[in-house]
Design goal:
The structure is a single chain. With 265 residues, the chain is α/β, with parallel strands linked by helices. It has one domain (5-96, 108-264): Protein tyrosine phosphatase superfamily (Protein-Tyrosine Phosphatase, Chain A, Alpha-Beta Complex), CATH 3.90.190. The chain has helices at 5-8, 47-54, 67-72, 100-103, 111-124, 129-144, 159-170, 175-183, 191-206, 212-219, 223-237, 240-248, 252-262; strands at residues 19-20, 25-26, 29-31, 36-39, 60-63, 84-86, 149-152, 263-264. The strands form two sheets. A five-stranded mixed beta sheet has the order 1-4-7-5-6, covered by helices on one side. The protein has a three-stranded antiparallel beta sheet with strand order 2-3-8. Helix 5 packs parallel to helix 11 (223-237). The radius of gyration is 17 Å and the shape is globular. This is Protein tyrosine/serine phosphatase. One of its GO terms (molecular function) is phosphoprotein phosphatase activity. Pfam families: Y_phosphatase3. It comes from Novosphingobium taihuense.
Length: 265
């Protein structure tokens, strides 16, 4: 059985969706707990939040946001933190300063509009050059470093969700567990506070005519979104492993190193 939801989620005041995505059964054993962390951005972290995060021993942070997002919302770090932040320079969203789910909001009015927009988004996520560049850095870091890492974007749900799902898939986590972990975004920590904050930002940028239900779709995740990314990868590359090898540089040697660092027998 995987680690319980209560054990893997850490509720923080200013960092949303913070959780451990290890603990699942994998091909070579079980993913280690305490080494694979994911979250939203840390620009509103409180001092107490930073103390908690620092206590986890995270040595590598992978920031999936674009350059303008980092400039507009710089993440806060603990005063004693001396790790590395990895990212590929450039924009991961087509609209400067926006998260990827926000760029899809311009034509959205209803929940159905939002779902269709998110499905279109997830067809593109695995192939956006800047995002791919940071995914490559992440895979390399997982192969080369045994220490805990943290993966994040703005809300920790789309760019981060796909990256975590790819790691799970490559390590042989069952698809049901991959989807279940992805869907934890909808309930992890203070999800309502995250949705409220996101709703304000989306409506400020795209007007107030958007239905509340549409905002909730944009600020959450649904299994068909992730399925669309995986299906598009399969259509273009045949399999997740082939995509990871050809696009992300996850050769058999890199994958074996990832398993040594992340999986316990």
């Amino acid at each position: 059985m995987a680690t319980s939801t209560e054990a893997r989620v850490i509720t923080l005041a200013g960092i949303h969706n913070f959780r451990d995505y290890g603990g699942y059964a994998a091909r070579a054993g079980r993913l280690r707990n305490g080494v694979l962390w994911r979250s939203g951005q840390h620009s509103d972290a409180t001092p107490e939040d930073l103390d908690v995060v620092h206590g986890l021993g995270i040595a590598t942070v992978i920031d999936l946001r674009g350059d303008s997002e980092r400039r507009g919302n710089p993440c806060l770090r603990h005063r004693d933190w001396s790790g590395n932040v990895l990212f590929h320079p450039g924009e991961t969203a087509s609209a400067e300063g926006r998260a990827v789910h926000e760029e899809m909001a311009a034509q959205v009015r209803t929940a159905d509009d939002a779902r269709n927009a998110m499905l279109r988004l997830y067809e593109t996520l695995p192939f956006r050059p800047v995002l791919v560049g940071t995914y490559r850095l992440y895979m390399t870091a997982l192969a080369e470093r045994e220490s805990p890492s943290l993966l994040h974007c703005l809300a920790g749900k789309d760019r981060t969700g796909l990256a975590a799902a790819l790691v799970h898939s490559l390590l042989g986590v069952h698809h049901d567990d991959i989807v279940a972990d992805y869907l934890l975004t909808n309930t992890a920590g203070n999800a309502e506070a995250r949705i409220e904050a996101g709703a304000r930002h989306v409506r400020e940028g795209f007007g107030r005519s958007m239905d509340d239900a549409a905002v909730r779709v944009l600020m959450g995740v649904e299994a068909p979104f992730l399925d669309r990314s995986f299906a598009t990868i399969a259509e273009r590359h045949g399999s997740i492993s082939a995509y990871a090898r050809d696009v992300l540089g996850v050769t058999p040697d890199v994958l074996a190193a990832m398993e040594r660092n992340l999986v316990e027998g």
